[in-house]
Amino acid sequence: MRKFILITIFANVFALKSQNLEYFFNKILSDNIYIKALENKYSSSLQEVEKQGYWQDPKLSMGFFAMPVETRLGPQNFKLSLSQSIPWFGLLSTRESIAEGKSRNVYFELENIKDNLFYEFENYYYQLLEIKEEETILNNNLKLLEQLKSLTESKYKQGFVNLVDVIRVNIEIENTKNDLSSIDKKARYLKYQLNSIISTEDIDFLVDTDFYKAEIKDYQLIELEKILENNIQLKIINNEINISKLNIDLSVKNTYPKFSLGFDYAFVSDNGSGVKDAGRDIFMPMLSFNIPIFYGKYSADKQKNTLIYDMKNNLRDDFIFRIKAQYENIIYDIKYNKDKIELYSKNIKSSQQIKKLLLKDYINSNRNFEEVIKIQQEELKYKLLESKAKKDYLISFSKLKKLNSYNKIKKTLNK
Known about the structure:
The chain contains 11 helices and 4 strands. The protein is of the alpha+beta class.
């Protein structure tokens, strides 16, 4: 029996340690259905790049003369034509580069979805940590209230206090039980959301609030320069700018003449005239040009791509300003929540000292019971506020990691 208990304890501890964020991020990457769909989309975009590198298929045409055309050497019965369109120098490589840019954007889109899922998961996960810590706080509060109830009932039976004190502590006990019931419902909702991100239904999410404390200690601020370097949405915009430049180049190359090489081969029958070379087939090499004389449509296309290029540059400048503003806002939230954690921690200690003195006075002189309840609820309030501040602190760091496109985490996951 003792061995079974030890094995169970060890298994629970191992499960808690294995269920860290890195473990869940790997589960998201391997199991999330939307990520799998985008991976297929990216693979298909690579095939589009491959397709752009080839010439057009050669054109083969055949013709039969229903009424043979009589020539000096004999009648023509059958004609064969073969032509190959040849792109202008650099045209295919430009189209290939544009396709590569579009494929790269699909990849960045995939990475951006991963960032969003990581952030969404962390957000729900830290909410689950918060309510699990709240559950511990409320259970401890319930125990203290039960002890206080026993003490009050004993004093009431002895005639030292009024029935009001007993009723008051019962009200607080019922309120605490109701809060615990609400926490259980919210925990089920959060676990469902976490499972939906992983595209599964069977993970129970064993949450250890010690991880809460460890996470707060481990985080370090990320420099703005690194974020501007790693932000995936900024990479998407920069890549779109590059595609716009290539489209401008393609618009220019589309104004160059297009040509094709080929030949006509006509089969001639001998008409029995005795003419020299009678029945000799006809072979005619061909060179044709497609001359872009209607330049207006090409000029309009170039102007359109130039305007898109300017627009993308403006969007990039605007996005950089918004990243900087978002960064400053996140840094403010981190520092603000850190200060709140320290403040609430001090308030909790002060409340505990006051409660200790009031309880001593109540036990000895049967006075200030209302103040005992009040300070007990004040301590509870500060503990819950501290838990919320810790959750907000961690979510602020999640926002910072998302702004950095979870760069460090992805490097760790890819190892």
